Amino acid sequence: MIRIPNIPESVVVKHGPKAWPLGLAGAGLLIFGSLLSWSFDPQVLGDLSISFNPGALQIMAIAQGLLAIILLLADKGPLTSLGQWADTALALRALATWALLFMAIVLVAITVEAGGLVNIEPGGWIAFLGAVLLFAASRLVLPRETRDLGHARLPGWAEILVIVALMAAILFGTAYALGLSDAWEFVLFLMLVTGVVITGIRAGFLTWLGHVTTRHKHVLMLAAFAVAFLFPFTQNGSDANMSIASQVLIFAAAAMGLNIVVGLAGLLDLGYIAFLGAGAYVGATMSTSAFATIGWKPPFIVVMLVGGCVSATLGLIIGAPTLRVSGDYLAIVTLGFGEIFRLSMFNLDGNNGPNLTHGPNGVPAIPDLTFGSFNFGDTHTLLGIPLARFSNYYFLLLVLIAFIILVFARLNNSRIGRGWVAIREDEKAAEAMGVNVFGLKILAFVVGAFLAGLAGTIKAHQDVSVTPDQYIFLESAFLLAAIVLGGMGTVAGVLIGAVILKLLPEKLRFFADYRLLLFGLLLVLMMRFRPEGLVASRRRQLEFHEADEELAVRVEGDIAEVVI
Amino acid sequence: MDTFVQQLVNGLTLGSLYALIAVGYTVVYGILQLINFAHGEIFMIGAFGALTTSLVLFRGQTGLWVLPFMIIGAIIASVGTAVLMERFAYRPLRNAPRLAPLITAIGISVFLQELVRLNYNHLPFTSWNPFNLPDAKSRIPFPQIDVVTGPAFQIGGVTIQRSAIFTVGALLMCAALLWYFINRTKTGRGMQAVSQDADTARLMGINVDRIIVVAFALGAVLAGIAGVAQGLQNNNIDFRMGFLAGLKAFTAAVLGGIGNIQGAVVGGLVLGIVEGMATQYIPGQFGGSPWKDVWAFVLLILVLVFRPQGLLGAKAVDRA
């Protein structure tokens, strides 16, 4: 992240003892300043103008101050028993850096929004000074030996409680973030979350959490799905955010499917959106829309299967010849295939071919799904909370994603998955070991296409219309970016990547114009500095950092642990 | 017969354009085994370089003497971009797994397109536009040049655009110079050596890093010229023009046998002619220009199935 040059050791040794009181003073000032008024103008950034009635941003600053105090007390003071485990010095550095950045951006935001530096009240300056002091102190705190977190254990019920609390925090954090309409507040909240997460990583909390979650895998899965399931209930019947959320889920479902192809089997597919499109067109043309061109109207579950099978067949047609010539060729052939698909859908309008898709106009007015008497277009009330159209689709998509994750996880841990990994790592060696390389590659391609086809049929109904320009190359690039950003071959990473790539542009509309520019830059920088993605599987991390001996030892240790 | 010759002429024109771009793919692939996916954008930036030269230095004058300057402008823009791209995006990834540079290439491609779209006529976050450049969000008319553009020639029943002659001529000249450069100069032979075996070439005292930069620059020179040719032919340019042209040119490179420079030229011409013929001779609803791109990609897939090494290819394709 942000690298700040280390200060000379002599300075640290000389002033080290002052760090603790200085840090406490800084954190105290940060909290005290946040209780006072920050802004003269009550109109900006929520209301920050009343003393002892903190607004949302001030509460965020107070939270950072409190976290800093806890870390300081764990370093020296009543909480030292906790400090034996956590790397408080590093954590404090990360926290203080982000807190300083947070306060700086708050001041900038007030200046910009209210028009001038004069609008900042003393409280804002005091809090900023506190952040500066905290930052200075954090640079002086000395790192210490910590104990191995693998041995840190709480009673079982307490660990489960931690997972549940974490999931609840994610649920309410997401609901809160989506509710923010002000771009500054949204960015600042994201900064708070990033800062806290990085602090957690530095303190080793996340490592510990990793141990906890592997001990309680099923609890984690259940909790994650419970959170996702409960999300619509936090929206009080508003469908605006649910529309975004269901878009995110479609995107995530497609990304998970692509993750099988790219992340597990290592086949770079640049035309994957075409499989989603094939499913969507099947869903559209077999729907009861007045513009649908296929007369057969089976129940939706059959349509879904047909969509999946059509996509899988296309995958087979495109994969069978090209998977023999591996590597880069596949990337370009799939790219060409994506273009063929889009152009065909564009052309099959009755003039340049049989009328299947209505050409550039696409198939509009696709009716909502109905299962029995349950119409997805209607608002249903559950537990007193109205759940409108997009919530209904959200639940359906959640089931689909659960299914895709299940397929992914089962395949990953099977003979097939091991085969894929072997092919990805070294095709020739895999073949020599008796892995059916060609068959497994085809299988990966077809399974990925099938899953995208399933998602596509739902997408058709959810979007109401299907047009060729929804399936341009850029969409394939976005899917790939979600995987790269999150971490290839991981479930959590890809889900996070999908959420980031779909959600941020929706919320940060003020830089909508620069969205793609930043996206391109992000891909380049990601490949340069963290090619393994945000959530990296250990094996992949090693692949990208071959020279890192320490990492290699750790990875081997992990693998040994699993075997035992 | 006239229609056949007409399609042949159209095909050759289109094919010359593909060939000029395809050389860039093939040269870089031959040396680095890297598909420089952003090469199409280099072509696009070349066209914009020529446009800028004409607008800024000559205020849209149409004399033939402007053309060389436009070509130089195009080459400066495209070579500059290519060299920066190699230095800052690809070089750090030299030893990374193969997926990484390909994803970087996609990123660069999107980045360059957007950069041109958003910031062609002003600096980022300002509206400073001293030369009154047009907005690149929509198509921009390309300056017309005396002699090279204008009324078409009629020979029998065949129409030949003046710009088509320019394109084909540019290809012939570039091909001759390229042949000379590759076979008769020290750097060119260095390139051949590196593409055969980079490690041994290094031991023989060849500066491999420099050769790689030269390879990128060489491709960019031809792409810049192709950008000018495309502008003269279509009368307008836009920031999206690199994507499809790049994809087609890559198809051409594969068709000829990637890594093989003569192959790229042959592949480009064959692809152009196939497109021209498909427009004319595929009967029924699937013929005609709406389907010509589809046929080009179908050809790519067929080549990979039946002759993965390409028409003239010698390079092994079996690379993971």
What does this 3D model show about the protein?
The complex is a heterodimer of chains A (564) and B (320). Chain A has three domains: 9-230, no CATH class; 236-533, no CATH class; 538-564, no CATH class. In chain A, 68% of the residues lie in helices and 2% in strands. Chain A is built from 23 helices and four strands. In chain A, the strands form two sheets. Chain A has a two-stranded antiparallel ribbon. A two-stranded antiparallel sheet of chain A has the order 3-4. In chain A, a hairpin with a 2-residue loop joins strand 3 (380-382) and strand 4. In chain A, helix 2 runs antiparallel to helix 6 (122-140) and helix 11 packs antiparallel against helix 20. The longest helix of chain A has 27 residues, at 88-114. Chain A is globular. Chain B is mostly helical and 320 residues long. Chain B has one domain (2-122, 132-140, 150-246). Chain B has helices at residues 2-32, 39-57, 66-90, 99-119, 162-184, 186-196, 198-203, 208-234, 241-256, 261-281, 292-306; strands at 140-141, 153-155, 158-160, 236-237. In chain B, the strands form two sheets. A two-stranded antiparallel sheet of chain B has the order 1-4. In chain B, helix 10 packs across helix 11. The N and C termini of chain B lie far apart (46 Å). The model of chain B is unreliable at 315-320 (pLDDT under 50). Classes of the chains: A mainly alpha (564), B mainly alpha (320). Chains A and B meet through helix 13, helix 14, helix 19 and helix 21 of A and helix 4, helix 9 and helix 11 of B.
